[in-house]
């Protein structure tokens, strides 16, 4: 593959997307599979076997366009008629939230690099301008489809269930009258109209805020004026009107009152009462709009004496990033749209014209309504088997349980609160525990885990919290509870300069008969009790001596100075995860060529790292079967003749967010399996501290292999990555019968184990 320097091109010289077939650009690839196969054949050397041949250009899918394909899969969940109605509304909200973050970070970064001339051709072979234009086309197509699903499908079906999402003209006179009183009492006092004239410059429009653009006419002078009214973000997105016509906040309406309830977007209520804000002025027109801004953070850590203060300063600056997208409601006049484009500094390409209401993240409010018949059946997590079977009249003694066996946890099927959370709470209260060390990437300020660390510090234990305050979009929360920990006497450190600490580790040092013993937790997900109920993750509780030494060394490396640390059961980025995985991929190639059992099975969130993908291509060329389950971004080109015909890629989305990472290798009949925090991305392998732990317990190995087999089976509902770079959903078999939902299967299996105890 050519180096970045060889591929670098200044943005002004980029070719346009017309140079590519429309289909290849939509699939996020520079070459079709046929063209790629031809290139492989043309440059082959007869003296070398396929797995030693040069690999062709164009062998990677584009990272950004692959992400859009992932969000399309989220949208397809919203389109799925077999899902409960409120869950479909929830997936519409997730799609909208995902796209916001994509524009705030990825598109904003791409635009910044193009503007500064620092953009280079992507590993996919697409130029920055081609990627940006491809994003614009695909994002607009998906947003229009997203709006249609809501307007033409989900909203009418909600109305049939008594949940009417209405526009102002759809309301009866009685409802409008009562909403006017509600406006005067609950909304009007909070609003701040901002005029634009020579004495009042165009106001700053904060990112993701919902706004009204208002055109006014002064009756005396007949002069037209522009004003902006921001919809206060602390007010509910929808106002509920119950069957009697009484308006209230959605959270205040009881389940018995939901029948025939109406929900009105708050911006429409404001729009109908603008005369209260501009008395004496004629309201000519008003339109809703919304701006997305660059909200990625840039903190020069080497120049910051105090990373915490530097980050706090950057968070203030974030609110004033340049606009990267403008959403406007259909029907907006050309004059108002031109004014917004000019004042916000966006291009025509950045404008999304969509049906009202804008910002369908507000459907989260609708999803939260107390209507269980319109949601996924309730699932109550069970306590992990090796924790639940400990005989005791008191709550489970975690230290006894962990000494007996390592414990593999699978959340949210197995409870986080009765495992990881309780382990740390028990450690904080145990007088024999001398020290607790833990990484915290994302958690909540009211987390029982944060409380446990504070309790431990108050009890005189040595407590170290390695807080990653640069966890994107959680920075402010993390700063708040980091200070709370510091004030309680917890030793709070912020990791290594230049590296985010993303590994999920907890270490408890306990004084026992015979000496000190270390109890450890290594996981794939954050120590966040709230997200643990919705994220699918794995974890291991162990007191294995090697793991205890590994975590001690890693924490010392993170809080002090230990650059040459070596590990027993851990692979740790940025030093050893990429090399460790590639070494094992190459071992599978050698085993396959020697006639031994060889296969590779991965489950992760994203696959982008070119070096690892190239190793997988060579494994495929050598005849090794590679099966991958990738939830999100995937730069792999699967099923391409001569390159990756032995690579099979699936993607699974469901009620839980698939978040666990598993890396498994046949190893000639002795499976070598790792779980941990790292995805196959540059940021994970080069710019973060990540950890993978080798699974040694044979029963746990089999459970993980069973999980991989279920996820990859043709009888399981999933999306398949096709040869041409597109994803197709496989939801039914040849007879039209639904395929198995892997998450439902695991729920049933977990319940079954509980019933068999």
From TrEMBL:
Active site residues of this protein: 502 (phosphohistidine intermediate)
Comp. bias intervals (Acidic residues): 35-45
Top-level class of the enzyme under EC nomenclature: transferase
Transmembrane domains' residue ranges: none
Gene Ontology terms for molecular function: ATP binding; metal ion binding; polyphosphate kinase activity
Keyword match ATP-binding: yes
Polyphosphate kinase N-terminal domain location: 60-165
Polyphosphate kinase middle domain: residues covered: 175-363
Biased composition (Basic and acidic residues): 1-10
Residues holding ATP: 98, 535, 631, 659
PTM remark: An intermediate of this reaction is the autophosphorylated ppk in which a phosphate is covalently linked to a histidine residue through a N-P bond.
Region: Disordered, residue numbers: 1-55
GO biological process, one term: polyphosphate biosynthetic process
Binding site for Mg(2+): 442, 472
Domain Polyphosphate kinase C-terminal residue range list: 398-562, 570-735
Reaction(s) this enzyme catalyzes, per UniProt: [phosphate](n) + ATP = [phosphate](n+1) + ADP
Alphabetic keyword roster: ATP-binding, Kinase, Magnesium, Metal-binding, Nucleotide-binding, Phosphoprotein, Transferase
EC number: 2.7.4.1
Job description of the protein: Catalyzes the reversible transfer of the terminal phosphate of ATP to form a long-chain polyphosphate (polyP).
Family note: Belongs to the polyphosphate kinase 1 (PPK1) family.
Protein name: Polyphosphate kinase
Species of origin: Bowdeniella nasicola
């Amino acid at each position: 593959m050519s180096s970045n320097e060889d591929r670098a091109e200044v943005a002004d010289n980029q070719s346009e997307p017309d140079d590519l077939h429309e289909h290849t650009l939509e699939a996020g690839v520079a070459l079709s599979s046929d063209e790629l196969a031809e290139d492989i054949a043309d440059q082959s050397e007869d003296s070398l076997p396929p797995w030693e041949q040069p690999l062709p250009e164009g062998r990677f899918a584009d990272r950004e366009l692959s992400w859009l394909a992932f969000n399309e899969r989220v949208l397809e969940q919203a389109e799925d008629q077999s899902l409960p109605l409120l869950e479909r509304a929830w997936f519409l909200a997730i799609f909208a939230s995902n796209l916001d973050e994509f524009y705030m970070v990825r598109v904003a970064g791409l635009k910044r690099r193009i503007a500064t001339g620092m953009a280079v051709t992507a590993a996919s072979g697409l130029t920055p301008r081609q990627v940006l234009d491809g994003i614009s086309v695909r994002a607009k197509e998906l947003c229009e489809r997203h709006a249609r699903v809501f307007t033409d499908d989900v909203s009418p079906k909600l109305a049939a269930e008594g949940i009417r999402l209405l526009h102002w003209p759809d309301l009866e006179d009685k409802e409008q009258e009562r909403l006017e009183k509600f406006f005067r009492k609950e909304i009007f006092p909070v609003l701040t109209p901002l005029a634009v004239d020579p004495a009042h410059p165009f106001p700053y429009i904060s990112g993701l805020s919902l706004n009204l653009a208002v055109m006014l006419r002064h009756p005396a002078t007949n002069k037209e004026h522009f004003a902006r009214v921001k919809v206060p973000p602390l007010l509910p997105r929808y106002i509920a009107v119950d069957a009697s016509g009484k308006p209230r906040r959605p959270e205040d309406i009881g389940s018995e009152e939901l029948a025939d309830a109406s929900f009105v977007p708050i911006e429409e209520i404001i729009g109908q009462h603008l005369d209260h804000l501009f008395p004496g002025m004629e309201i000519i027109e008003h339109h809703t709009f919304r701006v997305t801004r660059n909200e990625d953070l840039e903190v020069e850590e080497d120049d910051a004496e105090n990373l915490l203060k530097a980050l706090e300063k950057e968070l203030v600056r974030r609110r004033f990033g340049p606009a990267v997208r403008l959403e406007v409601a259909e029907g907006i006049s050309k004059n108002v749209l031109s004014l917004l484009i000019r004042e916000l500094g966006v291009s025509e390409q950045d404008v999304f014209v969509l049906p009202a209401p804008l910002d369908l993240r507000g459907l989260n409010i609708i999803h939260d309504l107390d209507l269980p018949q319109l949601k996924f059946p309730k699932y109550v997590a069970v306590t992990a088997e090796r924790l639940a079977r400990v005989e005791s009249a008191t709550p489970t003694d975690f230290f006894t349980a962990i000494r007996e066996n390592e414990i593999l946890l699978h959340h949210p099927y197995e409870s986080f609160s009765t495992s990881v959370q309780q382990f740390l709470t028990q450690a904080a209260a145990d007088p024999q525990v001398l020290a607790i060390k833990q990484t915290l990437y994302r958690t909540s300020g009211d987390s029982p885990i944060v409380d446990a660390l504070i309790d431990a510090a108050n009890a005189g234990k040595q407590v170290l919290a390695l807080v990653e305050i640069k966890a994107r979009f959680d920075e402010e929360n993390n700063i708040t509870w980091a200070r709370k920990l510091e004030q309680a006497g917890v030793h709070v450190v912020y990791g290594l300069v230049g590296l985010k600490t993303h590994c999920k580790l907890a270490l408890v040092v306990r004084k026992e008969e015979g000496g000190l013993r270390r109890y450890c937790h290594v996981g794939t997900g954050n120590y966040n009790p709230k997200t643990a109920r919705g994220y699918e993750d794995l974890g291991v509780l162990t007191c294995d001596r090697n793991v205890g030494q590994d975590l001690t060394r890693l924490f010392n490396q993170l809080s002090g100075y230990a650059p040459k640390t070596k590990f027993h059961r851990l692979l740790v980025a940025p030093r050893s995860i990429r090399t460790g995985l590639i070494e094992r991929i190459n071992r599978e190639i050698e085993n396959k060529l020697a006639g031994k059992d060889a296969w590779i099975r991965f489950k992760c969130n994203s696959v982008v790292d070119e070096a690892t993908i190239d190793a997988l291509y060579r494994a495929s060329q050598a005849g090794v079967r590679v099966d991958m389950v990738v939830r999100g971004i995937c730069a792999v080109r699967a099923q391409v003749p001569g390159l990756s015909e032995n690579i099979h890629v699936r993607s699974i989305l469901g009620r839980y967010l698939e978040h666990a990472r598993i890396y498994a290798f046949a190893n000639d009949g002795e499976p070598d399996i790792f779980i941990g925090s790292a995805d196959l991305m540059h940021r994970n392998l080069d710019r973060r501290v990540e950890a993978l732990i080798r699974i040694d317990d044979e029963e746990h190995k089999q459970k993980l292999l069973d999980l991989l087999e279920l996820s990859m089976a043709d009888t399981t509902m999933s999306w398949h990555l096709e040869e041409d770079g597109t994803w197709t959903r496989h939801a039914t078999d040849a007879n039209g019968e639904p395929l198995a939902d892997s998450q439902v299967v695991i729920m049933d299996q977990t319940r079954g184990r509980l019933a068999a105890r």
